[in-house]
Amino acid sequence: MARNVRLMHCTPDDVFRVLSNGWLYPLWVVGTSRMRDVGDIWPAEGATLHHSFGSWPLVVNDMTVMRVWDPPHRAVLEPHGGPIGVARVAIDVKPRGDACVVRIQEEPVTGPTRILPDTVFDAITRWRNAETLHRLAYLAEGGAPGTNGGADAIGHESTAEKEPIDR
């Protein structure tokens, strides 16, 4: 099982605001190239995201199922990667002062990745999930658009004084 941990300078609620917006999934999950649909009950347990991975013209349509939704502590997702198989991804979040610690654990459930030696699967997956946590941190720490924490980022004027633009 591949494990990554990252300290994020935000609250656990900030992390779960990003996770709860299915349309943000391709922004933080490495390999996801586009969203096709977000189930009406997302992020409730059993809800689905329909997305694709890969680069055109080699794009595979797949989906992710939410298996556990326990904000602001834990989410367990089950990405279905077409020919790659199914994985189980657990995201655990714990407060630490003004920040939080986010741990992601991933293991193969079905498909050819199950036959890889653990050391190979873990090395590849840890490398990818380090970037996944890096992207999730950008969104959670920055108050991503589409979350309650990012309201000022979408069409709202800043209260800061504007600087003149030199032309």
From TrEMBL:
Domain of life of the source: Bacteria
InterPro entries: START-like_dom_sf
Composition bias, Basic and acidic residues: 154-167
Region called Disordered, residue ranges: 145-167
Parts forming coiled coils: none
Gene3D superfamilies (UniProt xref): 3.30.530.20
Protein's name according to its UniProt entry: Polyketide cyclase
Source organism (scientific name): Microbacterium proteolyticum
